Amino acid sequence: MGAGLGTGFAGMSAAAVISPMLIAFLKMDPYMAVGIALSSDVLASAVSAYTYGKNKNLDIRNGLLMMVSVLIFTVVGSYAASLLPSSTMGSFSVFMTFILGVKFIVRPVMTTKEAMNNVSSKKRAIQSIICGTCIGFICGFVGAGGGMMMLLILTTVMGYELKTAVGTSVFIMTFTALTGAISHFMIGGFPNLTVWILCILFTLIWARIAALFANKATPKTLNRATGIVLVVLGIVIFLFS
C-alpha cells in the first residue's frame, strides 16, 4: 500500500518502501527483498504511467532519452562504487523521501504546462540526457533514490509541471525496475511466491488509486497530498529499516 501510494503520487520506487519492510518484519535476505520490491514496481509504475499518459501528463520522447542515460550510467556508477571501500548509504533514500515530502508541502511546484512547453525541444533533449546521466551514476553509486531524484530534477531543474514530472518518472521507472528485477532473480533465484504476489498486487492496486486521484486533483491539492505521503513514508521506513 505504501509503495503504491508513493509510486502513484510521486513516481517513487517501490524498493525504497518494500525492501526495508520485508527485511525488518520477515527477516528476508536483502538481495531477494530488493528483487521483490523492483518486480512490484514494474506493473505499478506501468499502470501509473498509463493513467498519466491517458490524461496527457507524460513526456514520452524526453522520458526515453533520460531512461537510456539512466540505465547506462547506473551500470557505470555501480562499477565505480565496486572499486571503492564499502560504506553504508541506505539512509540516503529515506532522508531524501522525507526532505522532498517537506519540500512539496512548504514550497509546492506550481509550474504550468504552458510555461513548461516554452522550453525548446532541443534544450529539453539535452537536459534529459545530462540529468539522466547524473541520476543514473548517483543511483548506481549510492544504490538508492532513483525515483525521488527523477522527481526532484524534473520539477526543480527541468521545470516540469508536477503531474507531467510524476508521469514521466513512473514511465522511466517501469523499465528500470524491470531490468533490475530480472537481473536480481537471475542471480538470486525465484522469490517466495506468496510474498511476491501480495507485494505486486497491493502495490499495483494502490498505485492505480493514487494515480487516478493525482490526475484529477488541483496542483495545490496534489502538492500537499504528495508531500504528506512522502513524509509519512520517510518516517515509517526510518522507524522499521
UniProtKB/TrEMBL annotation:
Keywords: Cell membrane, Membrane, Transmembrane, Transmembrane helix. Signal peptide: none annotated. It is a multi-pass membrane protein. Its main location: membrane. Pfam families: TauE. It comes from the Bacteria. The chain crosses the membrane at residues 64-82, 88-106, 126-153, 165-186, 193-215, 221-240. It is found in: Cell membrane; Membrane. Belongs to the 4-toluene sulfonate uptake permease (TSUP) (TC 2.A.102) family. This is Probable membrane transporter protein. It comes from [Clostridium] ammoniilyticum.
